[in-house]
Structures are given as C-alpha cells and as structure tokens.
C-alpha cells in the first residue's frame, strides 16, 4: 500500500487491453487475496474488449483451491488439459 500508483498501473483491469494469447482464469469463489468481485471486473472487461479467455470458478474454495473432495486433482487436470491444448506442438491457435 506504499505504492498506490504502482498498484493502479499494474492492476489487471487497467492492462486488460494489452493481453494477448491464451488466457485461463482460475479462482475460488471464497478467494481472499483477490476477491471474486475484482476477478469478475476483469472478466467483464475482457468480454467488453472481445479478448478470448477461459474461466473456471471453484465454489467455496479459497486461494489454495484445496477445499472439498477432488478439488486439487480437478484443478491440476484443468491446467494440464489447458497447457496441452494451447502449448503442445500443433496446438490450435486462437484468434
């Protein structure tokens, strides 16, 4: 909090228009580091700008996404599938 200008300049909402490539947003609805309202603001801005992205919210999970049976495995599989789809040789290119 000692650098408010730095926070403002680097806030995802303020740099959304410069995002390129594939974007996966994963969060828990109980996230306390970056509240869901901030993430939803970013999602709204990406939609407004026409920037493609994938978005997954895990209900009642916090920052670690560890609550609930199967959560850790599910999020790891989600990320692994995303990386294979978007980074593997011959992966589809998003426009």
Structure summary:
The chain is mainly alpha-helical and 95 residues long. The chain has 4 helices and 2 strands; from the N terminus they run ααβαβα. It is globular, with a radius of gyration of 15 Å.
Overall description:
The chain has 95 residues and is mainly alpha-helical. The chain has one domain. The protein has helices at residues 4-10, 12-15, 36-49, 71-87, and strands spanning 24-28, 54-58. A two-stranded parallel ribbon has the order 1-2. The longest helix is centred in the C-terminal third of the chain and has 17 residues, at 71-87. The termini are far apart.
Task: Set out the fold topology.
Blueprint: H1 4-10, H2 12-15, E1 24-28, H3 36-49, E2 54-58, H4 71-87
Parallel strand pairs: 1-2
Keywords:
95 residues, mainly alpha, two-stranded parallel ribbon, 2 strands, 11% strand, globular
Strand order in the sheet with the most strands: 1-2
The main β sheet shows up as: 2 strands, parallel
Q: Low-confidence segments, ≥5 residues, pLDDT <50?
A: none
Q: What is the averaged pLDDT score?
A: 82
How many individual domains? 1
| Count of alpha/pi helices | 4
- Radius of gyration, in angstroms, nearest whole number: 15 Å
Shape: globular
Through-space gap between termini: 37 Å
Q: Roughly what percent helix? A: 40-55%
Order of helices and strands: HHEHEH
What proportion of the residues form beta strands (DSSP E)?
A: 5-15%
Number of strands: 2
Structural class: mainly alpha
